[in-house]
Each structure stands twice: as C-alpha cells, then as structure tokens.
Amino acid sequence: MAANRDPQRRPVLYDLKNGRFLADPAIGSKYYAIPSAALDGDQTIDLINTAASSIIAAARVAAASTAAAGVVQLEDSISSTSTTRAATPNSVKTAYDLASTAQTTAGAALPKSGGTMTGAITFAAGQTITGYGLLDGAQTWAKGQRGEITALVDGATITPDFADSNNFSVTLGGNRTLANPTNVVAGQSGCIWISQDGTGNRALAYGSNWDFTGGTPPTLSTAASAVDCLVYAVESSTKITATLITNLS
Q1: What dihedral angle (degrees, nearest 10) is formed by the CA atoms of 57, 60, 65, 67?
Q2: Cα 129–Cα 133–Cα 134 angle in degrees, nearest 5
Q3: Which domain holds residue 160?
Q4: Inside any domain, residue 8
C-alpha cells in the first residue's frame, strides 16, 4: 500500500545532523540510517513517544520581550520589574489580595476634604493636633473662649444640671428653691443669672450644698425685672462656694 494511503502510518522524527530517522518506540524499532539530506521545505515533525521528554538549550531559544515573541520564565514575585518574565497565578493572587485590602482600607478612610467620624479617635501619649487645645495640659488661649448660657426651667424647685453648661439663667415667676445641682464635679465654676419677673418680690431658697459667706443665704433684689448674678465654684460634689452680685443694671 502506498505510504500516503496507509492508515497505519506513524509520524517520525528525523535527525538531520546524523542523517537518520529516530526509533519508533511503539514498535521497538531501531533507528534507520539514511544519507544525510536537507529538508526541501517547511515540515511538520510530530513526537513519536509522547512519554519522553527532551531539553532544548536555553541559548538556542529566543526570549520573549515587550517587542518580540518568545519564551518566558515564570516568577513568583509581586515586586519584580522584569519585562521578560511572567507572573505565576500565585503572585497574581497575592497582589490581588493586597489591592483588595488596600481598597477596603481606603474606602473606610476619611477624605482629606473632611467627613464624619463614626468612632473614637485615640492619640498616643505626647501627640498633639496643631491649632487645638489639650484636655490634660496647660493652655494659653490666644482667643476668647465662651461657654453658652443655658436657660433653666422655672418652677417651685429649680435643679441645674451641671453637665449641661457652666452658665445658666432663670426668671422667677414665684418664690422658688434653687436645689442642689446634679452632675456636680469639683473644679467647675460659672454664673447663674437670676431675674425677677414683671411682678417682682420673688424669694429664692437654696439647697444644702450651696455655701455662702458666714453661712447665710443672700437675699435677692426684689424690684420687678431686677437681675442678680450668683457666681459659684464647685469645691466637691457636696460643696458649692457661691456669692451673689445683686441689682445689676
């Protein structure tokens, strides 16, 4: 049967240097020597023994680059700057994980233009923020500092909450008692402006924690719409030193 019609034909490898066909391992044949000859055109050469392997010297293989096709060596690195080596799937995954973490962190960060904090900010000992005062350090203020004046609710008993403010005001609509404040902490000081209503002659009694000179509570100015100022400083949770400045006009 002609070779080109033989359905059992096998591909062979030809050793041009030594002028021989290589063995067909499927039938255990020896190589067949033939006179050395050059191929007269492009040929397809198939491996006969797919279980065998051969090594081609690296010097005979063109390396790939950004300008030409070729072979590349794998590199398991996420910091390489090589233009002739290829990253392994492992290094690509490592780089992806790092990028994903960075994206999550950046997404949770405040932009430089500002934003809303949702948690506490803790500074290490000795750290400062330029332009802001420290809560636990001596301060020299270059500008005026102000505490708001909180209006107290008038009633038979008036109870200031010292956690609300340092300074308060109230207009008396009858005889009243200024009770012991809540949330009293030593060191707090401030003023309470006490006004008579349009009728006047309103008296004010004091809770047991208010301490006055000589132990005698002061008497308010009684004219209609008169204004007095009770200046206080907290000595302890049960002692508030106070003095009344009367008849302000």
Answers
A1: -170
A2: 85
A3: 152-248
A4: yes
